[in-house]
Design brief:
- There is one protein chain.
- The chain is built from 23 helices and 13 strands.
- It is globular, with a radius of gyration of 29 Å.
- The chain folds into 4 domains: 151 residues, Mannitol-specific EII, Chain A (3-Layer(aba) Sandwich), CATH 3.40.930.10; 120 residues, Rossmann fold, CATH 3.40.50; 169 residues, no CATH class; 171 residues, no CATH class.
- It is of the alpha/beta class and 649 residues long.
- The strands form 3 sheets. Strands 1, 2, 3, 4, 5 and 6 form a 6-stranded mixed beta sheet that branches. A 5-stranded mixed beta sheet has the order 9-8-7-10-11. The chain has a two-stranded antiparallel sheet with strand order 12-13.
- A hairpin with a 2-residue loop joins β2 and β3.
Amino acid sequence: MRIVDLINKNSVKLDLNTKSKLDVVDELVDLVNDSGNLNDKNEYKKAILAREKLGTTAIGEGVAIPHAKNKSVNKACLAAGVSKEGIDYEAFDDSLSHLFFMIAAPDGANDTHLEVLSRLSTILMDESFRNDLMNSPSVEEFLDLIDEKEKEKFPEEEVEEETDTKSDLPTVLAVTACPTGIAHTFMAAENLSQKADAKGISIKVETNGSAGIKNALTKEEIEHATCIIVAADKNVEMARFNGKKVIITKVADGIHKADELIDRAIKGDAPIYHASEDNSSNEVSNEKEGIGRQFYKHLMNGVSHMLPFVVGGGILIALAFLLDDYTINPANFGMNTPVAAFFKTIGGQAFGFMLPVLAGYIAMSIADRPGLAVGFVGGVLASSGYTFGNIMNFADASPVSAGFLGALLAGFVGGYLVLGLKKVFNVLPDALEGIKPVLLYPVCGILLIGLIMLAVNPVVGAINTGLNNFLASMSGTSKIILGTILGAMMAIDMGGPFNKAAYVFGTAQLTVVNAGPEQFAIMAAVMIGGMVPPIAIALATTFFKNRFTESERKSGVVNYIMGLSFITEGAIPFAAADPIHVIPACIVGSGIAGALSMAFGCGLRAPHGGIFVLPTISNPIMYFVALLIGSVVGALLIGVLKKPLDKIK
């Protein structure tokens, strides 16, 4: 699609009369409407303004290219205008805009406007060409200049009608997924889409979020795609990509290395993906994952499925303590009143699924569906703490809960146990293939995991007991150091492995039988450490405005809400844009907040909730003070470390 095919004389004005951004939008929308390709001018204007709210479309060098894809457009078209005096269109380089090209594309067109945007951005890099356009004596010469420049830049191009029905299918596909399915999943999807759009590449991104799969890839799209990018920190459905070029990477790369991933996908720089027959062990030629990466993905698959039980059950339990009367019966705190007992019972039942679900989905990640039951049973046995001595009524033998560590062990052992059973049962005749998943795997797998967990529960239980005793013995400086470390870990990678390790450690303490103040203090330090980075960013964008672009200042305000809601990932775009200055500042702020939380004796019985569970936190006022101090310190450090934009050369 050539630029001159989308523009006509009625849609070009060489002497724009307006002086402000909003007025020039009105004038350009009128020019688009004059082409006869709009069915609702006001609706199209709303779409243009909505796009501008996301960030200015002034690309600098005196050029602005506002654009929108909307149902109000009947046919793709283009309008152009010239302002010799220049108009402030909020360009990133603070220059006035003289050349304006407004692109309109129908809602069903996948990439027409992106192709035009790419072409315009390319040809307008020539300063002499821009000057020629600005000084064009007539509309005809203006259009001729564009036609000649387009032929010069794209000499190999042959104009032909688009008759291939598959041209509307996206060239590149992507799948994004993170353990929580909240922030990283959608940030990676948005970044991949934006980078592809900027390159004029059609892309479709499927998100595997906490609410399920959105924008699912179809069979036809997969067949047509040049390459598929899988940016995920948990397992996603891969068998559908069998025989296609697939780039498998972590979700963080979808955020930080989207440009590189899109370039690789277009070049076809990816190995062919081969799914195994039972879909349990997938291989990608020349791109095998390391042991550490595999371990992390299996673990995060379990954690992502566990979190809803932890958060929902944990907050209900916390509400039970908030609504109870401690003086009635201190030993039965949380169950003394009918309302408290109601919340405690439901929350306790939900929370009780935490360890079995963790183990079950780790095993399922390793061995596919046959691993689920085996891992689940292993998690139940780890939680209940059964031992050979206990079930055989040996003297003085009692259950020894293996806790979180035992559930982790059960998940990995159960998964690899099922993989081993699959290999063993491969010698059976094909006629018995149907009974393997419904009989052989569950019976043999559950029996074996039972024997293993009964044997290891005493050992892992002893380790748990030792860890809990160690935490209970901590006081003074040692507690503050632990709080500092946990808080800082939450800010190191803001949702990555360090962050998740600290969070999993904090939630694991809530599962301890008869958990005390030490365990609750750990969870409080973890949460406050995760709340500080986005709030520090928000404060910095508010009080150190000259350190941030206009779009960063606008998005910075949202971080107040994200920080107070304990969504650390809100700080990622700022950290990714300037990691050297932003990340150390956030680490210091979070570490201080974690230390103060410990020093003030704050405790948290809920694993999530942010400021909304403040009433359930012991010593809530000082907890808020610790949050405020950590956030302010982080913001001040950002202000000191980051240079004002006008001083950056």
